[in-house]
Amino acid sequence: MPADEIRGTTLGTAPVPLSVLDLVTVGAGRTASDALRTSVDISRLAESRGYHRYWVAEHHSMPGVASSSPAVILAHLAAHTERIRLGSGGVMLPNHAPLVIAEQFGTLEAMAPGRIDLGLGRAPGTDGATAAALRRSDRLNEGADDFPQQLSELTRFLDDDFPDGHPYARIHAVPGPVQATSPGGVQSPHRPPVWLLGSSGFSARLAGMLGLPFAFAHHFSAQNTVPALDLYRETFRPSEVLDAPYALIGVSALATDDEKEARRQVLAAALNMVRLRTGRPGLVPTPQEAEAYEFSPMEREFVDTWNANVIHGTADEVRSGLDELQKRTGADELMLTANAHGGDVRLRSYELIADAYGLPTPA
Questions:
Q1: pTM to 2 decimals?
Q2: Which of 7, 58, 244, 283 is the most core-located residue (most Cβ within 10 A)?
Q3: Rg of the chain's alpha carbons, rounded to an integer?
């Protein structure tokens, strides 16, 4: 697989390629339809301004996050964009049969040839009860422990190369390579590159050993970022996919026209996280609601810790924060996620950051 399907191009004055991670957040007073329209708007902006890729996360049973079906959303975004890479950040593989994911992403590849990434995680992307409902099993640890085997199975379905005698040797993921071997068959030379996602050392080590690109969730596991990236680089073995490590990190970043507004917006997003972490998930509150909320001392401590890892402020302040983070971590790509109540605020943030780095402007 060509490395240029993985490595991005640095544009403007950015230190590395910039990309977007979308949770399709739903604010109070808004609908999932509103959130999905915002995703289309942001993906178009990202494409026009030179962001390299646009990934959608998988989450379940969270009213404020409408990204429960990444493949469906990616198909929608593919219909509204032309060039930007689209992918999952990520599909939580233990929630799905590998063959189903191979079929879904083979279909996406057929819709948008050469533009699809398949990012995979081993966490459920939800609470234990919801994970049990998704998997039709209460043996949740089994899914995570079986992740390397599931990954191997998925890769073989994508490449259609199960060995003779394997129980799945006569099963084919369609669309996929089998079509090229059928009479008169012609198949796209592209296959979605597989990325491993993680918030600890497990996937970092596995990605390194397999020679795969790695994406780390700095936006919610900042204390583990540098150790995980170091582990990935130390264990990396060159492969047909990559001859050298390639790691991106997810970063919470929100730029606004003035610093005070940035603080108001990230406070609302932090209140949403407080509610989620205390078993009260809901829609993303408005800044007004967050300002009126009486945080307990424990909640205030959580908010302060959480927001310390959110790069926010004016465009210049965000640019400086991103530059410092990239220098400190050595990340090969920064994938920005803007968490705020309103879609217009999120859209404006990506525009301001693009301006701050002198990214291309539409013709």
A1: 0.94
A2: 58
A3: 20
